[in-house]
Design a protein that fits this description.
Blueprint lengths: L7 H15 L4 H8 L3 H14 L1 H17 L1 E3 L5 E3 L8 H37 L5 E6 L2 E5 L5 H13 L23
Antiparallel strand pairs: 1-2, 3-4
Helix pairs in contact: 1-2, 2-3, 3-4, 4-5, 5-6
Length: 185
Amino acid sequence: VPEELVTKDMRRMAKVVNFGVIYGISEYGLAEDLKISPRDARVYIKNYYDNHPAVGEFMNNAILKAKETGKATTLFGRTRKMFDINASNFMVRSRAERASQNMPLQGTAADIIKIAMVNTFEALKKGGFKAKLIMQVHDELIIDCPIEEKDAVCKLLKEQMESAVSLDVPLVVDVASSYRWSDGH
């Protein structure tokens, strides 16, 4: 679908599939999230791996590395012990395998948002803003600010989040403002 024809609902569903697959969702979990049949969810997952074989290779390598080292590591070196990665119990081992796939991805995302949070806090302070960084929700930073600072703070936030780390792909950030956080979605 050409980008200009992508709807919000299509984007939402694509995010569910993308994040679900890389975080180890089952076909039943994906079916539940998308309100589709498990058979259709199985096709979505298969097509995802068929179209992105490097993702499957990355996921398998994450398990192999955890089995060898007993830990999973983020891009920035934060580690999590994988005590059950070689467990004889299938369910216990499977849970550890999913965690070993998840940690490098979700853990790195957590590291990035923390870096962005610290940088944003320092930039607000340095800029003399009255705005306050008040909360993090997943990959969002919530700032409370006077209306007269809104445009400058939105610009500062976008800059700080997009430059938090340097990766092979750009970090692209959408900034929204509203009177209440719940209205900004």
